[in-house]
Amino acid sequence: MTFDWSAVGDFLPAFFRGVLVTLQALALGSLIAFALGLVWALAQRSARKAVRWPVTVLTEFVRNTPLLVQLFFLYYVMPEWGVTLSALATGVIGLGLHYSTYTAEVYRAGIDGVPAGQWEAATALSLPRGRTWTAVILPQAIRRVVPALGNYVISMLKDSPMLFAIGVLEMLGEARQFSSQTFQTVEPYTVVGVAFLVIAYPASLLLRALERRLAR
Amino acid sequence: MSDISWGLWQLLLKGVWITVQLTVYSAALGAVTAFVIGLARTHRRWLVRFLSGAYFEIFRGTSALILMFWMFFVLPVGFGWQLAPMWAAVLTLGLTYGAYGSEVVRGAVAAVAPAQREAGIALGFSPAQQLWKIVLPQAWPEMVPPCTNLLIELLKGTALVSILGVGDIAFGASLVRNATTQSAPVYTVILVMYFVLAFVLTRGMRAVERQAKAGIGRPPAKRASLFRRAGGGRPATAVPGAGAGATGRGEPR
């Protein structure tokens, strides 16, 4: 096996462009996932069946079908319905939507973990419903699920190469392009693989440390 | 939906068969990997623990799709090993999800009360006997629910192979889309197909769980909704946080 370091050098500019796109998709995707997940979690606690049921069905469906197919669906079907977005925007929506169904479960667990006494105290102080949520329940619930949310960000990072399938030039897309232009396959794919390790491993260590701190 | 002719339906159904095959073979390889690596991570020798830990971190840290590209394009060029696409895909998925599974195995084995092992020592069981007759039978029911989640993730992961030209459901869908020039019907159909597969898998695993729990005299876990799996997350990706409450154990390391 020959590993050509000069090819690595040639690949680097494109690689860093790819890293930037990946991180962009990751940041925006996480924002959508965090926000939408909270919406699902709250909707599933609604007193109305007409709200609970559709949300449960939707989240179960999205969670149990492949992200890749969902991306294709968004990318090919939305234009047929008259909504045309860039590949990156489609990818961000797809990632965010898919992972919002996971974060919804995380929030749900967090909310369930708030002791009943907190609810009772809020009632005793006759706090209005909105304020009970924003000032009492959610701050406690979210604090304890931060590490779990972080884990899904790492999962999302590892799923981000799928965006390449709808034409986003993130890390894998750049590697593919580079290898088809120069016929050097070993170096770009290896660089990208190592890059994932270099990003994901310290991030998971960080989260473990964070969890240990919050668990005290 | 009427635009999809019988010939095109056949393409999709053939894809379902390939997806099922991929899932079964990868799950088998993944299970073997999970047990070997998971048990190696509890081994007495630090070298074994270190190597298996490194395997876990490497395969968990990188993306399955990248690894698949690597298997497809780098192995043939760099090492001269050309695998059939189907087997390269099975190898990638099995090794990746096996790494996730190893965390499940390790956690479940570590959660067996130490007194159980000590009793085995006191009765003069060999280490292998302790493992087979005492530890694994008690750890197994704990492993089933998180393994169900992993199986669903694996099923979803098989869609990746379509990018590399293996004829699974998603690949069939791209062919059908080209033939009918309409995306909405075919992608809706295959999303439902994946959902049905996942549903069947969950139901099957629930039966396995019931049986495993009955085997050690515990009632099956109660579940709220039609489909909810305990924890609802990817347990092995997660350090056991709120999402992985199903496994209900801390970090014994």
CATH level 1 class label of chain A: Mainly Alpha
Strand content of chain B: under 5%
Query: How far is the first residue's CA from the last residue's CA of chain B?
Result: 54 Å
The CATH homologous superfamily of chain A is termed MetI-like
The value of Rg of chain A in angstroms is 21 Å
> What's the pLDDT, averaged over the residues of chain A?
90
For this structure, the CATH topology of chain B is MetI-like fold
Number of strands of chain A: 0
Q: Any low-confidence stretches of chain A, pLDDT <50, length ≥5?
A: none
Oligomer: heterodimer
What is this entry, summarized?
The complex is a heterodimer of chains A (216) and B (253). With 216 residues, chain A is mainly α. Chain A has 8 helices and no strands.
What report would you give on this structure?
- The complex is a heterodimer of chains A (216) and B (253).
- Chain A has 216 residues and is mainly alpha-helical.
- Chain A has one domain: MetI-like (MetI-like fold), CATH 1.10.3720.
- In chain A, 82% of the residues lie in helices and 0% in strands.
- The longest helix of chain A has 40 residues.
- Chain A starts with a helix and ends with a helix.
- The model of chain A has no long low-confidence stretch (mean pLDDT 90).
- Chain B is mainly α.
- Chain B contains eight helices and no strands.
- In chain B, helix 1 packs antiparallel against helix 7 and helix 3 packs across helix 4.
- Classes of the chains: A mainly alpha (216), B mainly alpha (253).
- Chains A and B meet through helix 2, helix 3, helix 4, helix 6 and helix 7 of A and helix 2, helix 3, helix 6, helix 7 and helix 8 of B.
